[in-house]
Amino acid sequence: MKQIINSLLETDLYKFSMGQAIYHQFPDYRTTWSFKCRNEDVHFSDEMVGEIRNQIRAYCDVRFTEEELEYLSKITWFKSSYIDFLRLWHPRFEDFEITTNASCGLSIETTGTWLNTSMYEIPTLAIVNEVYFRMKYNYDELLESFEKRLDEKVGWLVDGTYELSAFSEFGLRRRLSAYAQEMAVKKLATAKYQGSRFVGTSNVYLAKKYGVMPVGTMAHEWIMCVGQGNHKHNPAYSNWYALDAWVKEYGILNGTALTDAITTDCFLRDFRLTYATLFSGVRHDSGDPKEWGDKMIAHYDSLGVDATTKTLLFSDSLDFKKADELYHYFEGRARVAFGIGTYIANDTDVPALNIVMKTTACNGQDVAKISDTPGKGMCKNPAYVEYLQRCIDWRMQAR
After folding, report:
1. Closest C-alpha to 71, from 22, 25, 8, 124
2. Which pLDDT does position 202 carry in this prediction?
3. What is the rounded CA–CA span in Å between residue 347 and residue 351?
4. What distance in Å separates the CA atoms of residue 111 and residue 117, rounded to the nearest whole number?
5. Pairing with 388, which of 68, 97, 231, 344 sits 20 to 30 Å away (CA)?
6. Among 123, 29, 14, 119, which Cα is nearest to 75's?
7. Taking Cα atoms as reference points, which of 328, 269, 316, 329 lies closest to residue 288?
């Protein structure tokens, strides 16, 4: 197969946003990341695993170009010290352990500094997806069905069947292929809509290529590692530590807070007036989206913050119909935006893979998330999950 990842910009923007804060504040943190395939009927053949290994090795030979670093340096919140670090940085194949020792036939773990291992997640998942679909199916037929469905979806936005307000493409980690994602971004960026506005893509490489906005702030790993990586911290305060470090790095810039790393209710204990004012909005990634949005608006109201000046960003398993319903439900009550992934980047005649790569340890200790949807977490140690839940329960009972 041709090389899949040809640029180190081919990752989600939030990897750079978190990367700069890691570089400046947590450069000695070490993490372990583990791959998991949630599809029970999916199996990776030995040939697939061999190709994935070869593709990851090729990815580790890629370096930033000066043109790419110049592009990053023009994004308002990136600092010259971090750009200089990226000038020296490259992936290390030695950080990867890739075997067939898993029920799905593919096991991937990465271990090393958080600075390194954080950067591996998105390219690794993109490689796994593309290898699987090219080797498992007739790829040309899949691509044909993908383009047909994509054109139909774009047509719905052009003719006003669905209105999404502002939306972005978030599909890199689960895309059918690099070619398919680029096709989607190109079509979305050039279409003329009624009631919708294509803001950009999380894929920094494609944002640069097509002159659209790169989109992304923080992921669960930020809250998990900042809040749980220091063993002196009570993990029930993970959000406070993570938000505090983010504001230290960015001030009022780059501010969309993720709410569900240790449940949204616990997040709201720390999302008080200062943070609610400084952060431009919040992101939904689990639980009922309408209940979550109502809860966030009520929280802003309780603090005396005008919710119509804040953005509710929805990013959990969306399609255009769901996004349209949410937009009209919250219209006039808050700003609404959407990050839409698999539905745009991997909708074909066969089911998409449900694969993830998550932080499972930080500084030699288990880490976990307890989201608003049971089963979305990933931790190798059930005892640690129970401990984290007890800490959250204690925090929620405290006055």
Report:
1. 8
2. 98
3. 8
4. 6
5. 97
6. 14
7. 316
Extended beta strands in the chain, E state: 30-37, 96-99, 107-113, 165-169, 196-201, 213-214, 256-258, 281-284, 311-314, 335-340, 355-362, 365-366
Q: What is the pTM assigned to this prediction? A: 0.96
d(CA 257, CA 270): 12
Q: Which helix (H) or strand (E) covers residue 313, if one does?
A: strand 311-314
Length of the chain: 399
21's tokens:
């804060």
pLDDT of the residue at 399: 66
User: Residue 263 corresponds to which tokens in the numbers above?
Assistant: 């449940």
Is residue 199 within 8 Å of residue 231, measured between CB atoms?
Answer: no
Q: Are 10 and 68 in contact (CB under 8 A)?
A: no
Does residue 55 sit in helix, strand or coil? helix
pLDDT at residue 97, rounded to an integer: 98
Q: Is 335 exposed, middle or buried (0-12, 13-18, 19+ CB in 10 A)?
A: middle
Name the token pair of 155.
């047509």
Paired strand residues for 37: 355
CATH value at residue 94: 3.20.140.10
Could you tell me the two tokens for 84? 């200089």
Q: What is the mean pLDDT of each run of 10 residues along the chain (399 residues)?
A: 97 98 98 96 97 98 98 97 98 98 97 98 98 97 98 97 96 97 98 95 98 95 96 94 97 94 96 97 96 98 98 96 98 97 97 95 95 80 94 89
Q: Which of 356, 362, 393, 363 is closest to 378 using CA atoms?
A: 356
Write the single-letter amino acid at 239.
Answer: N
On whether residue 186 sits in a domain, the answer given is no
Structural domain includes residue 327 = no
Nearest-angstrom CA–CA distance, 229 and 220: 13
